[in-house]
User: Which sequence fits this backbone?
């Protein structure tokens, strides 16, 4: 049994879900510690996992002050040295990690890095955040003893773009989010309702989805598009107003225990993304046995087994046709629900991910 320390200092939404479920599975065979931000209560982690907390707030001003609180850093690393972990696993991106991983190397700790987005999303290449994330990615990649990526296409990307030795990279399945179903009431979907879920960035191409609704409206006038999450709608107001009666919008940060509501009321989910390495919305949809219409980019399409649910990006006509097909052929969703759920359990289950890394 090895001692494993996992760093997850940005415990928000899907990254927290990933880290917690990974750690819970890993703790079945190893002694697991998790370093997390002190504002998170840790309720998703099993009780046999020991939490090390440090003050690091998500807001810029608070984070700046937290970074200057050297005493807190010394306190954390004193705890870590006492533990003497066999492996330190960086699960997310945080501006302290380029310094932390070098401390690990000096202390002769083996370092693992899970890199979710080797190439960053297109939306943030104009932001300071993009430059910081790029620096973190590069530093972790260069100093890791083992690099973990989701699926073979990202392994290929690491090798071709960043010249990482293939022996240093482990490719694992992505994850399942079946834990969300513990709040599920097993309600029936509403007629002609479908879902666009999660934050709205430019690369997610909500505008393409909205443009596709013109043809959908002519074929199925009473459709309802559910748009759920806290987001800025200002640039989409013109198209939103055009179909205002065909929307149900929920504009707030949705807590874990309410996620099920929006999948439950939907017949299927639409992800018309321009680019993305992956999306946690897909395994969440599968957990609730919902088909997903998505674009043929990166790893998105590899998990949608039905070709008529996969469209080329920026193809308004094809997207309209796929939505209309699903609304008119409701039996298809019913036929596929066992297939989606089985896929999460057979291919995306956590033991397969953990065992491939720590076997």
Assistant:
């Amino acid at each position: 049994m090895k001692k494993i320390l996992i760093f997850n200092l940005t415990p928000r939404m899907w990254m927290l879900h990933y880290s917690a479920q990974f750690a819970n599975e890993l703790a079945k065979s190893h002694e697991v510690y998790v370093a997390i931000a002190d504002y998170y209560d840790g309720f998703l982690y099993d009780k046999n996992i020991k939490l090390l907390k440090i003050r690091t707030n998500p807001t810029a001003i608070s984070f700046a002050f937290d970074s200057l609180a050297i005493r807190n850093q010394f306190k954390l690393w004193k705890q870590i040295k006492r533990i003497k972990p066999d492996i330190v696993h960086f699960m997310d991106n945080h501006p302290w990690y380029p310094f932390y991983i070098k401390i690990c190397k000096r202390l002769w700790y083996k370092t693992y890095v899970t890199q979710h987005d080797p190439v960053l999303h297109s939306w943030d290449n104009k932001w300071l955040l993009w430059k910081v994330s790029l620096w973190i990615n590069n530093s972790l990649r260069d100093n890791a003893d083992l690099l973990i990526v989701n699926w073979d296409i990202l392994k290929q990307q690491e090798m071709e773009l960043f010249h990482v030795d293939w022996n240093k990279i482990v490719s694992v399945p992505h994850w399942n989010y079946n834990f969300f179903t513990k709040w599920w009431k097993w309600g029936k979907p509403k007629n002609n309702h479908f879902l666009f879920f999660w934050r709205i960035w430019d690369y997610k191409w909500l505008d393409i989805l909205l443009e596709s609704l013109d043809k959908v409206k002519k074929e199925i006038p009473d459709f309802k598009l559910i748009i759920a999450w806290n987001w800025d709608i200002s640039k989409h107001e013109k198209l939103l107003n055009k179909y205002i009666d065909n929307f149900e919008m929920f504009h707030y940060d949705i807590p874990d225990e309410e996620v099920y509501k929006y999948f439950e009321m939907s017949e299927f989910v639409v992800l018309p993304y321009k680019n993305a390495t992956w999306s946690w919305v897909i395994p969440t949809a599968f957990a609730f046995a919902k088909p997903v219409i998505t674009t043929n980019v990166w790893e998105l399409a590899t998990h949608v087994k039905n070709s008529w649910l996969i469209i080329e990006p920026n193809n308004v006509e094809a997207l309209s046709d796929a939505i209309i097909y699903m609304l008119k052929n409701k039996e298809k969703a019913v036929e596929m629900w066992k297939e989606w759920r089985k896929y999460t359990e057979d291919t995306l289950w956590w033991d397969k991910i953990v065992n491939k890394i720590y076997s």
Notes: The longest helix spans residues 330-346. The radius of gyration is 21 Å. The chain is about 40% helix and 15% strand.
